Amino acid sequence: MYIIGENIHIISEKVKEALANRDAKFFQDLAVRQVEAGAQALDLNLGPRKKDGEEVFPWMVDAVEAVVDVPLSFDSTNLLGIEAGLKKVTKAQPIINSTSAEPERLEKVPLLAKQYNARLIALTMGTSGIPIAADERVNIAVETLIPRMMEIDYPMENLIIDPLVLTVSGCQEYCPHLIEAVRTLQYAWDPPPNISVGLSNVSNAVPNENRPLINRVYGAMLMGVGLQMMIANPMDIEQQETIRIIEERDESTAVGRLYLKIADRIAAMEEPQFDDVDPSDPEQMAIWKTVQILLNKVIYADGYLNQ
Amino acid sequence: MPIEIPKDKWPGSVRQVVLGATAAEGGTRTSKVVVGGETCMPFMHFEGAIPNRPVVALEIRDRRPDDWSPLLVKTWENVIDDPAAWAKAAEEVGADAIQLTLSLTDSAGQPMSPETAVATVKAVLQASGLPLIVFGPGQSEVDNLLLVAVAEATKGERLALGICEDKNYRTIVATAMANDHVITARSPMDVNLAKQLNILISDMGLPLDRVIMDPTTGALGYGIEYGYSVMERLRLAALQGDAMTQLPMLVTPGYEAWKTKESKVGEGVPESWGDWLQRAINWETMTAIALLEAGANILVLRHPESLKQVEAAIQDLMTAPDMVSV
Q1: Cβ neighbours of residue A196 under 8 Å, at least 6 residues apart?
Q2: Domain hosting residue B184, numbered range
Q3: How many independent structural domains does chain A possess?
């Protein structure tokens, strides 16, 4: 699993404060810790930075590249800011996060990616928003995103399609469709396009104590359909362990066997079965209940684990 | 050519909830209503059982309302200053239950006291033998104050008490448990929040056969499609076996419909809108029937003519010919 570390994100109060103070040490520490935890790239979500993007992005590149060598992902809508950052990059091939299928963004962002030889995350979202149905999202990729890349002769191996994870708390019906979108997108082109998702989005608006469980169960389900790249929290140790179990097919623990079974069932286009679970083990029951809400079989509620 | 009608078979069912207790059961009601129990989507008689028909309650107030349409005020003019007489009148025009809403202030503008609220509820119980649903004014602190007093003074009557929301459910659930009442749990048009509130209430130990949920709905032309979808999803989940959604639903189309422009405004609207009273009644009736189709078990209305029309629709829907044998 190729993990783009998500932790430098403006939504965090600490990040906001450190950015206001131009506290390079804070970001260097956060960058190093993510890479040590297994991140292979780092997302830099600094918000639109309309006023100072052209100063902030290069500053951030300097700060982070002083301590890590991994690719940096510019997560912003501010193209001038992104471009200023791209000019500063000296280490790995950067990533632009993101374009969508909206005409204006699709016109400009891929050209910028091509000019700076950056990889490009492209969202399956058009002017009318994010479709629920898996095949509609695949259609956006095949009919709009990929043709635009061909049109400007952008190297397909640099394209990363993001079919968009939405939260189980409020957009529950999207959750199973996203799994199918990841499955189908791999057949959308030859060679198969790179696919990435923002995993933690699945638990937005969920109480903090339940977020990691929902994230790692969804991660296991998505690995079942072949996901190999995601923007996620690399410092979530249990999530990393779940990824390892599935990658290494480690059957040494009961919970590990359940995660493998879930991934295998999803891979085979089957639904996980209650027979796969040992009901006497609370951890397995929690995983089972989480699968049920992520497949939209049971309506999500904050207290779903207590039901 | 024979046509096979596809049928769904559902593993779950809606819980049955009883409102009102007769003398034999420790109350004073002369009738009670039983709602819920269905094992199929609304009126899909060929797929399952609908053991109890939906019921219609009429809303009355503890005093002359300040914000009701003049059409409604005119209709109830003779009884509008006397909740007991109003309840009796509602029973006479055919309501299955009475829904009494307590006001924030009395007619002199003073905060409603628990003593006055209790006296009003007792007078209504005296005047009509129908099951009674009592709503507070809708501000959680005042609701708690008034409803606890009402619940204690009417122990055993099996009233439905509302409005129980995430902010104040603890107090109302506790008093319902202590005094053998039912509660209505209201959530703001959201399946996740509706279910969460039911989980919280259930965690307190109130048996779920004493909970009715009010998912809130909107009126025809004003977001009813969202309300409809929420109710439909909750009902589908219930039939699929999700215990925390298997509750009968109470909705308030009277309240919703009578605040729309179409019902409220009689002048300065296009002539093609037609007769004001007819339009207002149609609005309330159509809102109610849409919600009926979405799975409502208790409909709270305001106008007697709407009540008549909705009761007739329920009659038709409950006796629809067996589709399979047609």
Answers
A1: A2, A4, A121, A160, A161, A162, A227, A229, A230, A231
A2: 17-317
A3: 1
Q: Indicate whether B322 belongs to any domain.
A: no
Residue B125's domain is classified under what CATH number? 3.20.20.20
Per-residue pLDDT tens for A260-289? Answer: 999 999 999 999 999 999 999 999 999 999
Per the domain annotation, does A304 fall within a domain?
yes
Per-residue burial over B204-220, b if 16 or more Cβ lie within 10 Å, else e, is eebeeebbbbbbbbbbb
Rg from Cα positions in chain B: 19
The model's pTM:
0.88
**β-pairing, B33-35 with A229-232?**
unpaired
pLDDT at residue number B296:
98
Range of the domain at A252: 204-307
| Contact flag A307-B237 (C-beta cutoff 8 Å) | no
Domain annotation covers residue A107: no
Within 284-303 of A, beta carbons closer than 8 Å to B belong to 297-303
Which pLDDT value is given to residue B326?
Answer: 42
Judge: A306–B242 Cβ closer than 8 Å, yes or no.
no
Whether B243 is covered by a domain: the verdict is yes
Using pLDDT thresholds of 50, 70 and 90, give the confidence band for residue B322. low
Residue B34 lies in a domain: yes
Q: What is the predicted pLDDT for the residue at B107?
A: 83
CA atoms of A82 and A92, how far apart (whole Å): 15
Q: Are A286 and B180 in contact (CB under 8 A)?
A: no
User: pLDDT tens, A244-263?
Assistant: 999 999 999 999 999 999 99
Q: Are B245 and A297 inside 8 Å of each other by CB?
A: no
